Amino acid sequence: MSWVILIIAGIFEIGWAIGLKYTEGFTRLWPTVATVTAMVISLVLLGLAVKTLPVGTAYAVWVGIGTIGTAILGMVLFAEPASMLRLASLGFILLGIAGLKLAHFS
Q: Which of 19, 46, 59, 77 could in theory staple to 35 by disulfide, Cβ–Cβ 3.0 to 4.6 A?
């Protein structure tokens, strides 16, 4: 169950990272409220996950999910560059996340 909680925490991290763009420097009320709410939920869920998962593994997976998701949504929503090097780098992050998860079970 901790892994599911950690994945959900990572999804909320993506939400708040993308939400930062919509807050326009925290000058827009509702995007700011949504972003701060996503931040709190993400951190609370991360805190729950580390009760049973190693903190280094959980944190790295959480950040990795947020990094990959935010980068992909940045490409889709904000027309950020999607070069082969950038996509390959995201693939390496994904491999790192998978490796950490596999190492947890060995």
A: 19
Quote the pTM value: 0.91
CA distance 105 to 28: 44
Q: What is the pLDDT of residues 31-52, one digit of tens each?
A: 999 999 999 999 999 999 999 9
Token couple for 59: 């944190």
Closest to 104 in 3D by CA, of 66, 55, 48: 55
- For 38, 46, 71, 76, 98, the CA distances from 9, given in Å and listed in that order, are 9, 6, 17, 21, 17
Q: Which amino acid makes up residue 57?
A: T
Q: Tokens standing for 60? A: 């790295």
